[in-house]
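Example record

One chain of 199 residues, shown exactly as stored in the release files.
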Amino acid sequence: MKGTHTVSVGIDITDRIRAEEALRIAEENYRSIFENALEGIFQASADSRFIRVNAAMASIFGFDSPEQMVASISSIRDQVYVEESTRDEITNHFDSGNTTGHFEFKAYRRDRQIIWVEVDMRAVLNADGSIAYYEGLVQDITERKYREQAMQQQIEELKVEIDHEKRRQQVAEITETEYFQQLRQQASYLRKRSHRMTT
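Predicted structure tokens for this chain:
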């Protein structure tokens, strides 16, 4: 009589469960960072549309919600960039093979008010090397730009004052030289002589 053997096959799914849990935690952390960050965060398609933006990004550009901003802007090139040169600079930068870039430029808010923004971007590539989408961080630097402009104006005004003061000092130094004093005496003598000859 043959014996009966029972074979038990057990599959250890502990590692898979741990991996799934780690992925879930990572996704929650990313979502929390994305939604609560003080900086604007965005993802944009290669054809110039926003895919996702966070609340800070929407606020910077004057929108009530991320969903409103994504729905309202059909062309980043036409509705966000103030200057055509900005579009060209960013396009040429990434077309040249760069995958990251830092830019400062003027942008339109929802109400068409112009602000200055600082943007750190990177291009996320497909397997074939083409650009799948862009993602980046945005800060409103309008106040900083205004301070820089005011400081530059003060520097220019100070330069003018310094130039005037230098010229005044140079004139004073010239008039105090012995040569200038002699010229002034000669001029005075010639004026007196001319006056006597005409009377």
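Notes: The chain has two domains: 24-140, 147-197.
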